[in-house]
Amino acid sequence: MSLKRWLVVALSGLAVATRDCINSPSSRNCWRDGFDIQTDYTDLKNVPQGKLVEYDLTVSQQTISPDGYERLGTVFNGQYPGPTIEADWGDTLRITIRNNLTNNDNGTAVHWHGLRQFETNWLDGVPGVTQCPIRPGESQVYEFRPTQYGTSWYHSHFSLQSFELTQSQGPISIHGPTSANYDIDLGPWTLTDWYHDDAFTLNWISLAGQLAPFPKSTLLNGKGVYECDPANDTRCTGKQEYFETTFKRGTKYKFGLINTATLLTYSFWIDGHNFTVVATDFVPIEPFTTSKLNIGMGQRYDIIIEANANFTHGSNFWIHAEYCAEAGVIDNTKVGIIRYDANNTADPYTPAPNEDYECADPNPSLLVPIVSKSVGVKANTMDIKDYLTVGEVNKLPSPWIPNPRVHLWTIKTTALYIDWEVPSLAKLTAEKNSTINTEFPPQSVPIVLDYETGEWVYFLITANYSVEDVVTPRNLTPTVHPIHLHGHDFAILAQGVGEFTEDVKPSTENPPRRDVVDVDIGGWAWIAFQIDNPGAWLLHCHLQFHASEGMGLQFIEQPGKIKGLVEKAGVLGEFSERCEAWTDWYTSKNIPDNSIQEDSGI
């Protein structure tokens, strides 16, 4: 597009977007070529044409100590967090993943969290669902075009590697318009809990029915402080440090906050500052201002903060993150420092501790999408069989451990267990199968959505419901369940605490949309999404102990269209070769059956 004189009209602090409007500190709602914050990005015709952006990521293991305490970690390109994947809205990403986990013989695959993978289900990166694992020493190219923009992250979805996603992960930043103005983009901020023991040890504690172990520290952008003494512990490096950034008074900063934790839903705040939230997950929203924000595992918020603090107690300020439900779970809520003077290295003033504990998502009335969508009438029955009831199973043997005392989680009466060698997508594209009538074993927990494009389906996810033929114990372990859907955003029709009652009215006129919803302790969430993306899509709890113990299911969406999409893309040969390579490697190792897959597989 040739350079022109930009037409900007003031309106509520933002420019009126026209074809002549370009993204700048005074017009962040604009983008380019007529695309702006009002553009309906859910319509592929409304996605800008971009460039090819390439990345090369190697998965390996090495000793790391982000909080000053050494442990073996799974990393991308030798760093934690992994490199930031950056692109502009409409660009095409070509990312090569190389599996260098030759020291522990693990497969791998990478999931691009929240990116819809529209009509490219085979690139969603879930072994046992959308692909076979990448065997050690091999690689895979993921090439796709993000149709959304905002903040997210990538991580392994391979069994307990997924549990260790606090290491094998990195941020994603897809640049696009914003619903409020800012001066400087600070990029993604990853927030995570951090453990010192390996995933297998910790998971067996949880499988035995004990409470999930609490982490040792919290990290912000890969930095944290664990109190230890190198003189008494050889794993203690004595090199703990907080994440720090420097503000200039009067400047507005934007950052994307991502909860990449294993266990904890966090309450996040910054001493002396309010901030403005402008996006939830990949959905731009009407700006709202707050002093504190709860963020569940897998959730993201784009935030703008103005450097306007009062210096009564000095010019340095703590950044905090605390477990939302209880004080003292993490000894130290301090995760970072904002300094207005980089030369002033004193510790910030510490105000009285926060005593306000609750884990709910922000009030739905605050999460108003900029691009307005109405939810259509439901195509499914929305009766008890459509309730996704959270449950715990302690008396049935698992498919992989013949021990009746093993502890599992469910979201549809059966604990999920997927087969890495025969992923769901392989079943749906096999020559011998009619894709509409493909049979799945019950432990793959399939829900077939054979509806027309554009129809809507409704589902209730509840951790507090009981009728005679639906087993949902009221004495469930009290915890938040961050529920993530692959392949879609969903509308939140309603959510609450306590038992769901059928007199609840769904909000269908531009309700909040996102891809992770927190089902609060003893609560429920009512969601809906539109049928428009054929594939096998995972729905699961992003609390990693729960996902590992079976809390997930698969939506088989428009099964009759899946095989045609795969054949049209010409990827069936590569798909099959990867599965053959995985099976050959597995067989060559003479590994006893089920000795590697010690959990659900996700």
From TrEMBL:
Official protein name in the record: Laccase, multicopper oxidase, benzenediol:oxygen oxidorectuctase
Signal peptide interval: 1-17
Keywords for this protein: Copper, Metal-binding, Oxidoreductase, Signal
MF (Gene Ontology): copper ion binding; oxidoreductase activity
Keyword Oxidoreductase: yes
InterPro entries hit by this protein: Cu-oxidase-like_N, Cu-oxidase_2nd, Cu-oxidase_C, Cu-oxidase_fam, Cu_oxidase_CS, Cu_oxidase_Cu_BS, Cupredoxin
Species whose genome carries this gene: Aspergillus tanneri
Similarity comment text for this entry: Belongs to the multicopper oxidase family.
Domain Plastocyanin-like: start-end pairs: 59-176, 188-342, 417-560
